[in-house]
């Protein structure tokens, strides 16, 4: 699908997530002439220009004539970057993909003159299979929502939350979630190795099993509980494995792990927004 992108966009920060969005937008038809990156590292600017055919600018350059600013710097740098450019960002749509910074703090640093979207993407965005949770702050419009949906749609699914506090939950589930999945894959591959498989084969089986199971879960009309039961024959191998997981409290461990991530997300937001 070719997107209809009429907005001019500048990314402040040219890291992996910014590049994922850039690549997705270009792949779906956005003109390179409408995309800019402000990046402090000269070598990285050269790479970005060559790889994507876009205009790159040094950190001290003036903000180009754009409609949308995507804040893609590290959270610890966000206060300095936004405070220094508050006047330049006035009246623009500002989309923050910096983890853990609340819109109230962004609004304060930007002197209350920008329209704000707060986003929690995740790393599968690097292969256009991400999911981004988005909160639209007060003062944003339906047109702002459409533009943000288009930008983030270039890297995967977009889900909207009505309360900003829900972004911390999104962080705990999908933001941090890929690491939980990778950890489970690590364990399954290790089991294969310890049972005698060659490491490469154990890794392939573990990854392919997750890939197939997720595809089935997405395509099936059955819920995941039903799909689990469909694999589990009474007295069989799957039941033996699941009984062990249940006796070890695996599901409760997963729930409590996600709750720990949620609590930490709130703590980090407090720290990053502290004056």
Derived from helix and strand composition plus strand pairing, the structural class reads alpha/beta
Radius of gyration: 21 Å
Strand percentage lies at 5-15%
Number of helices: 12
Helix content: 40-55%
Give start-end ranges of low-pLDDT stretches. Answer: none
* Largest β-sheet summary: 8 strands, mixed
**Total beta strand runs:** 8
Report how far apart the termini are.
45 Å
Question: Which strand order spans the largest sheet, edge to edge or round the barrel?
Answer: 3-2-1-4-5-6-7-8
Order of helices and strands: EHEHEEHHEHEEHEHHHHHH
Mean pLDDT: 95
What does this entry look like structurally?
With 275 residues, this protein is of the alpha/beta class. The chain is built from 12 helices and 8 strands. The protein has helices at 16-27, 42-52, 75-84, 86-89, 103-109, 142-153, 166-175, 177-194, 199-219, 224-231, 237-247, 250-272, and strands spanning 9-12, 35-38, 55-57, 68-71, 93-96, 115-120, 130-136, 156-161. Strands 3-2-1-4-5-6-7-8 form an 8-stranded mixed beta sheet, sandwiched between helices. It is elongated, with a radius of gyration of 21 Å.
